[in-house]
Design a protein that fits this description.
single chain, about 140 residues, mainly alpha, 4 helices
Length: about 140
């Protein structure tokens, strides 16, 4: 298979945008990590001044930090795959190397596969939440 100039141009442009989105994603990942490291302390401070949060055991607040860090680790792979795609597609098109272009498309496939898996998990969690609300709501009504 031979790529037309138009197809090469589209891949080159996709690589530029993927690179931009990956860099922004890495920055957001870093900011989210800072938030994750601080969220336990933030909740602890709020609990001291708010009667609503004071009933919550303070030992649970570091658990929020752990959850946020785990979400951040998962989120890291989105820009990581985009960055790998961007680098390989630029290099592959610049030197006209089919193997490099193929590897870049493999990284793009990994990105979309991760998007799909996370979407399926999120949809399942939403369905479980709706089911839980229905069950709890119907048991409270009776």
């Amino acid at each position: 298979m031979v790529l037309t100039r138009e197809a090469q141009f589209y891949l080159q442009e996709s690589g530029k945008w993927a690179n931009f989105l990956a860099i922004v994603g890495f920055i957001m990942c870093g900011l989210f990590l800072i938030l994750a490291l601080c969220i336990g302390a933030i909740f602890s401070m709020v609990a001291k001044f708010s009667p609503v949060y004071s009933a919550i055991p303070t030992g649970i607040f570091p658990f929020f930090s752990v959850i946020f860090i785990l979400v951040d680790v998962l989120y890291f792979f989105f820009p990581f795959y985009l960055y790998q795609f961007a680098g390989k597609i630029k290099k592959g098109l610049a030197i006209m190397n089919a193997e490099e272009v193929t590897q870049s498309l493999g990284k793009l496939k990994s990105f979309f596969k991760l998007c799909g898996i996370v979407t399926i998990v999120a949809l399942c969690l939403y369905a479980l939440e709706i089911l839980a609300f229905i069950i709890i709501g119907s048991s409270m009504h009776a």
